[in-house]
């Protein structure tokens, strides 16, 4: 007696659902934000440092630097610009070398995931943390240091485009400068001195027009000076424009320089970014 074996019934399979490009970018952005929040050092430095500096300098200096403008109000505008630079330029310039040294970027490059998704995640992280930090600084400044929020739609619009152009330029420059670090440890050594020097010469800690003329000219080559100047036009009286080097806030030039740095930063990213360390080839 022979027995026949019935063929096994076909197993129903569900095709893998394709994830759209927007969803991919959002997932990567959520991952980057989660990783940032899990790093206590990054959170404390990025979010807490500008607030601590405002508290310290406001306690030491409280003189008027112009009619109706205190040093504290002037300093706050510079710290908002500094906060945006810290979360973009400094944060990316330090963390990308760490990920490169750990082989994270090499593994990303070996997956089917489009390369742009990695950068989209970084951009979304910068935007989310930058907005949170700016809101925190504004809340502290309004509550404790009598900073006046913009009273017109035009000033809010200026605040928006200065912040967007500034963050874009600093983000691209942060990605570009990350390639200068040879190891994970050298990222901070490369980026932090640059960020500190820019703060001292760009009118953050000192009134810009009181700096030596050569220092003003050097600062004018970089984005932070123009970010500070654009934000001063938002939060300080219009009359303070006469205290600027050119006798006005020069918003047209602010937009031109920041846009130029966006282009320069993009070119540097495309020509210098590395997915592997130099020892990996």
The amount of beta strand, in percent, is under 5%
The strands making up the biggest β-sheet line up spatially as: 1-2
User: Given the C-alpha coordinates, what overall shape results?
Assistant: globular
End-to-end Cα distance, whole Å, is 68 Å
Tally of separate helices: 10
- Unreliable parts: 1-16
Query: What fraction, in percent, of the residue positions are helical?
Result: 55-70%
Explain this structure to me?
There is one protein chain. A hairpin with a 2-residue loop joins β1 and β2 (69-70). The protein has helices at 21-38, 40-60, 71-101, 104-109, 115-145, 153-177, 186-201, 213-219, 223-235, 251-272; strands at 64-66, 69-70. α2 (40-60) packs antiparallel against α3 (71-101), α3 (71-101) packs antiparallel against α9 (223-235) and α9 (223-235) packs antiparallel against α10. It is 68% helix and 2% strand. With 281 residues, the protein is mostly helical.
Short description:
By secondary structure, the protein is mainly alpha-helical. The chain has helices at about 20-40, 40-60, 70-100, 105-110, 115-145, 155-175, 185-200, 215-220, 225-235, 250-270, and strands at about 65, 70.
Q: How do the strands and helices of this protein lay out in sequence?
A:
Blueprint: H1 21-38, H2 40-60, E1 64-66, E2 69-70, H3 71-101, H4 104-109, H5 115-145, H6 153-177, H7 186-201, H8 213-219, H9 223-235, H10 251-272
Antiparallel strand pairs: 1-2
């Amino acid at each position: 007696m022979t027995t026949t074996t019935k063929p096994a019934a076909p197993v129903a399979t569900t095709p893998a659902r394709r994830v759209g490009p927007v969803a991919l970018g959002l997932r990567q952005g959520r991952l980057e934000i989660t990783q940032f929040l899990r790093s206590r050092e990054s959170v404390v430095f990025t979010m807490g440092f500008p607030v601590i500096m405002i508290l310290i300098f406001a306690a030491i200096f409280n003189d008027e630097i112009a009619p109706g403008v205190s040093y504290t109000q002037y300093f706050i505008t510079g710290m908002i610009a500094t906060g945006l630079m810290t979360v973009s330029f400094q944060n990316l310039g330090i963390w990308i070398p760490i990920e490169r040294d750990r082989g994270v970027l090499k593994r990303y490059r070996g997956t089917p995931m489009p390369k742009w998704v990695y950068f989209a995640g970084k951009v979304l992280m910068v935007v989310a943390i930058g907005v949170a930090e700016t809101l925190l600084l504004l809340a502290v400044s309004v509550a404790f240091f009598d900073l006046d929020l913009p009273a017109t739609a035009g000033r809010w619009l200026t605040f928006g485009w200065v912040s967007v152009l500034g963050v874009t330029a600093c983000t691209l420059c942060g990605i570009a400068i990350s390639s200068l670090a040879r190891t994970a440890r050298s990222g901070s050594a490369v980026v932090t001195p640059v960020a500190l020097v820019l703060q001292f010469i760009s009118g953050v800690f000192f009134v810009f027009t009181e700096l030596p003329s050569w220092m003003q000219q050097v600062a004018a080559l970089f984005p932070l000076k123009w970010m500070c100047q654009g934000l001063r036009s938002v939060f300080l009286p219009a009359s303070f424009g006469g205290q600027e080097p050119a006798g006005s806030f020069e918003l047209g030039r602010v937009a031109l320089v920041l846009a130029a740095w966006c282009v320069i930063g993009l070119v540097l990213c495309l020509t210098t970014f590395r997915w592997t360390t130099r020892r990996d080839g």
